[in-house]
User: Fold this.
Amino acid sequence: MDEELVTRAAALFANSDYGPSPLKTAAFVGLVDGPPPEEPSEANAWWLAVLRSLLERDPSAAAELRSLVGEFPSPASAEPHGPGEFDGPAGTPVVRNVVSGGTTYGPVIQAETISALAFHTNPVPGALPDPQGWPTADDMDPIAFGVRPTHRVPGHPPLPPYVLRDRDHDLDTALGEARAGGGLVLLLGEPFTGKSRTALEAMARGPAGRRVFAPARGTDLRGLPALLQGRPERYLIWLDDLDEHLGDGGLEPRLLAQLAALRVVVVATMSEDAYDACRVQPGGRVLDLAHIVELAREWSPTERQRLAADAARTGDPRLMGVVSASGPDGAATCLALGPLLWDEWWRARRADRHPRGHALVRAALDLARCGLTGPLPMDLLLKVHEGYADVTGMERESAEDARAWATERRYGLLRLLDRVTGDTWRAAPILVEAAARHEELPDVPGPVWGCALGVARTDGAYDYAEVAADARIAFQRAADAGDTAALHNLGLLADSLGERDEAERWFRRAAEAGEPQSAGRLGRTLAERGEGKAAEPFLETAAEAGDAGAAALLGKLLRARAEHWFAAGAKAGSPEAAHLLGDLRLGRGDVDGAFTSYLEAAAARYEPVARGMGVIHLLWQEGKVADAWMRRAAASGDACAAGFLDPLSIDSVERAVAFFQDDAQRGRGLDAANLGTLLEEHGRPDEARTWYLKGYKDGDAYGAFRLAELYKKCGDEAEATAWYRKAAALGHPGARRVLGEAPASEPGGSGDQSR
Assistant:
């Protein structure tokens, strides 16, 4: 071989930017001690890798290679002609055509000489990158090389600090043995156990500076031995999800043996299901050669102690969160699944997804944010979730479908709603832990805080004062942002804590800001103190907004004022005022007072008082006198008085019974007890008892009272007392008097502020 040609070839590779050239190891240029592999297929792969690497790094070398190939002499031979040999033209040596490297899959061109050879410098698909460009084990980005991302926290690295696992020692030992003689170390475990992070951390703990090749799925690995042959460095091969790197061109026993001979360590991960599936496949035989380290999903007490200690030491909020949020599934599962579950739940709010399911989970999440982290009845969650006005499209999804979606397992592991006991539930702890980090999540609405306060007030499992303190902060923040409903909520909260002055201050601020609920509460408070006139404008605001109680109280206050001024007018000599005063008194049952006022009007010859006088005499059963007054009123055009003069339409007991019976059977109004009274008065007590009982069951206290009176007539004192108590419990004043209790004040009286 021409020494000049050899020198030019060596210089060509030495001057390329490839770095340490594979050709420097070739025997034909005399740069290394050993030759290329003798096995034809291996030699072919070795030379292909050499040329491919050169041309990828230095395309300009193609021209020089072409020139060199053209100048190399044809090999001479004095041996006899054999198969495939032929004599060239006169004066030329015998040419031997040899196909090396095993099997050829295309046509073979036989030629005496080839005058030109074209090299195409485009990169060949599947080419293995230069090991000098591989990252070192301690410089690998965990997320880029297989670790699932967790929640991003401003001011903190993309991943939380690594917490040592109990199997790290076994993994370090296995890697140490593999570094001495090569081999495969396989980290085996269920999904979401932290296999990738654990393996990468173990590689980083090894000798510094070792480079790692992490091929993409489907990469042909058969060129690795040739690529690494003769290199003094030691390498690691990282095969995350090993099942994706088996089969044709992947890891198999012979390739593993070649890599082990070069003291290359293959580090891999695999799920248990994939391991079981691959073991029975031809491509899975390499698994028999692996040093297996199993990693459990569940964290041991020792691991949880390390987790808590690292969280306290580093202050990383993600570690601090999983200390409380991770259950038997382990911290790694929570860290990996947390973002996935949050994203699925958050995107479900759209009308075309699961808006009702989203709202149902949000109800549990918001109640937990209020401090109710214990079990919550599904009925409560269903009640709360209906109040989210910002979630549209809930009518498209049934409550049953929403519940099924919210309670199904994700990835076979975690639910958005966890069952506690029976039909009680809680939001997944990892959702609760993540809620504080997501600014897009709206603040807990005031009505949800109201439900939380109601539960905390009655459930001994919660500290009401603590929940109330958190609610006060939330309401104050909302009030500062201009939410008038929050001002009202602050008033309700102060009132529940017995802070009357503070409550009135908040109600007044809210009422002045146009909050009708607060206007009603403030009006009632003022009326309770006897400040009726001051209460009236607030009650009127509430009444106009639909507050029936405020409307009734306002009417009573105005009636009291009207009575005061009618009395003043009557005293000053106004017959009209005397007449109207009599109507007010008669309306509240003061018959004698009404008669006195009517007499004053009659004495002044005030004609409109005639009907009132007639009613008084009817009540006193003075029919003839009443008739005279009614005729006078009718003659003056009083249509109502004329109606009194018509013959009675109900002139028999049976017709009276029929009058009450229809509505009594339907449970309407007070008719059942009235029918019982009618029957009892006409000597039919057994029938009366049935209707009294019906009235009581319909909620009429008078029915219970009449039953007590009936039993008392029969001499059954014990049963009578029992029914008096039932009537008193429903608020009947006569029953309370019999039992010696103070009668209830008139509902809605001027001094009463029952709500």
The chain has a mean pLDDT of 85.
